[in-house]
Amino acid sequence: MKKLWIVFALCLTAPSAKAYFQPGLSQSFGKDSYRSTNAYLQFGSRNFSLAPEFSMYSDKTTGGSFKTVSARAGYDTQMFGLGATAGSTLSHNRYSTVFGGVDVAFTLSATGGGMHRMGGAGRSGAPGGKGLARIDFGGGILHIRHKVESGGSSAASELGQTDIYGFAGASILGARLSARLTVPSYSKDPKSSAVPVPSWVPITGHTPGVGTYPENSLHLKAEWPIFPLISPFVSYTRTQYKEIQGGGASGKTGALAAGVSLGLQMLEVNGSIQRVSVNGGSDKNFVSLGAGLRF
Fold it and tell me: Which residue segments constitute the domains of the chain, with CATH numbers given?
């Protein structure tokens, strides 16, 4: 492992390499005193990239903040990409997670540029391509271990969650369309009394984390760069949930978001509003603002 990091560092510092450096920060607000902060840093050179990330979330029920640290290392060419992710949600209220996974992506593009796949892993904007030139597709696997530490007379409980996902994206006459389907499996029945009740499970395209286990999730997104600097976008995420211990009924949510990103030469800012509809419950609204630098 040490040798791999040395090779990666040499690639970043090679004189002929074209290096880049992209820090960013985003903040979200919502109902029930919901607050979340996400800070990230993406840098790389040649075909290699590394993206450490830190996020924290709280609302009126959490008694403090859940904090998550992670990093993704990637290798990308014009036609092919590989990535590996690892991280952890630090222990809070006796609940914690560790996770890791890999992803792969392919691009069918004769003239499109860029190395970030539409709908895939990573956070940077999708490449535009030209006309019908660009199609991206791929998938990945992410394993999460949920754990609730023992307290009093109760024993520690654990659950393994394995997310398998596939994605596809296309640039059609300037519009960027993408879809991502995630289907988890579990090491135990989530209704079992030996399974920890989750405190925060992140879902792609869903602003707040959820306190239950998903059964499947579909994320759709469309973006239109109608002006040289302005790109409005809309997304919709539909998630079905498992029934968990305690008799909580399984249900579903629909998260509809609309926003705009403004890309300047060295600065990108974005903002969005998301409305989450809960089956059998009240709707919730969330506002997100973010900014990133590009060097």
Answer: 18-293 (2.40.160.40)
